Structure formats: C-alpha cells, structure tokens
Amino acid sequence: MEVLEAIRSRKSIRAFRPDPVPEHVLIKLLGVATRAPSAVNLQPWEFFIVRGKALKEVKSVYLEDYRFGKLPDPDIPVGDTRDIAPVLEGVYKERQVALAKQIFNIMGITKANKKMEWSEKMMQFYDAPTVIIVAVDKVLQGNWPILDVGLVTQNITLAAQEFGLGTCIMRAIVDYPKHLRKIVGIPESKRIIVGLAIGYPDWDHPIAGLKTTREEIDNIVTFVG
C-alpha cells in the first residue's frame, strides 16, 4: 500500500472479528512502526501486547469498574475525570458531538440504555482480540516522549493496513492503570501512555461504514512570508 493511500484509507475500527493476530505479524508490524522519528533518537516507546486470558481479565475488571462508576485514573490526564472524555467547548465540542451522532445514527441508538451499551462496548475495546499498550520509562520527563509515542502510534495505524489489520487508538484501554500493572505486569517504573485495539476488521458490521469528516484545509493553514 502506498503511503498516501494508507493515510487516506486509515480509519478507527470499532468492530473486530475474533480471529487472533499471529505473533509474527505483530512483531513485523512493530518493527516497521518503530522507524518513527523521536527526539534525539530516544525511541522511548515500549509495547505490551495483551491477548487471550489476560485480555479477558482486563476487559472483565474494566467493565466492572465502569458499571460501578469508578472514575478513570490514567497516567496521562486528558481532561475532566468525571466522565470518560474531556470536557470540550466550541468547535472541539461540535466535532465530538458530531461523531457521537454519526455513531448513534449508524447503530440506531436512540435510548439511554442503548447509549450505555455502546459505552460498555467501548470499555470492551470493541471486542478486539488484541490490544497494544504503549508505555515509556518514568525517568523520561516532560512531554517530548508523549509526542514520540504519538508518532509511533500513528505508524502502527498506517502500517497495520498492509497486514489487513484495523486499529483504534483508545484512551479507554489505559483508563485503569492499576489493573494493567497487576494483570499485564507493567512495572511502576513505566508511565502508561495510550492503547490501541488491533485485529481484523468486521467489515460486515454497520459501524464499519462510519466515515468522519475533516476540517477544510484553508481554515487551519496560515502562510507567512
């Protein structure tokens, strides 16, 4: 797949087939993705690939905490922790609401209990057979390592398509780091940054038809000089 086509065709997958992703495919994928640039070539990223029994356990405790209203407590604060998403205003709120409306329309969600079911689906990482957790060493201070993780994460989403895989970058995967440390074995010396759901997309699922919009480029570009 050509680079530009990979960028254009990439989308967040919210429905996966149960087929496991072979280990050698994941290793090859990450080997390509780690060609991402990083500040002074720090390469700060570390990957924890969670599958099988461990992933089932993570999903189970996450769903329990979510249903009991336990607040998310990610290592990287992203906003108001009263909810599973940051509190937004202006155009950012508009984009968030537009996405929710798209999802609800596609899924035929009109009632509060159905919205809750979809939220629980998110807390199950859309039934992905594998998740990748990206962490960095706590000795690396400041925000540059987080930017570096963003770069390698984007590479994963683009390269995954070459292997017939789909991805969804998800904060929900890292909402409860205490559970991840216990179940996955991520040491306290690591800062858990973000997670990706990864697997073979279920293209027959209605949500596979979701296509989000992008801001007109003229509205966000300024030429100087």
What brief labels describe this structure?
225 residues; alpha+beta; four-stranded antiparallel β-sheet; 7 helices
Can you walk through the features of this model?
This protein is 40% helix and 13% strand. The chain has 225 residues and is of the alpha+beta class. The chain has a domain at 13-78 and 123-206: 3-Layer(aba) Sandwich (NADH Oxidase), CATH 3.40.109. It has a four-stranded antiparallel beta sheet.
CATH class of the domain at 13-78 and 123-206: Alpha Beta
User: How would you name the oligomeric state of the polypeptide chains in this document?
Assistant: single chain
Total number of helices: 7
Structural class: alpha+beta
Assign the CATH architecture of the domain at 13-78 and 123-206: 3-Layer(aba) Sandwich
Poorly predicted spans? none
Supply Rg: 18 Å
Neighbour order of strands in the largest sheet: 1-2-4-3
Write down the overall mean pLDDT: 93
Which shape, going by the Cα principal axes? globular
Name the beta content range: 5-15%
CATH superfamily of the domain at 13-78 and 123-206: NADH Oxidase
* Span of the ends, CA to CA: 36 Å
H and E order: HHEHHHEHEHE
Q: Give the biggest sheet.
A: 4 strands, antiparallel
What name is given to the CATH topology of the domain at 13-78 and 123-206? Answer: NADH Oxidase
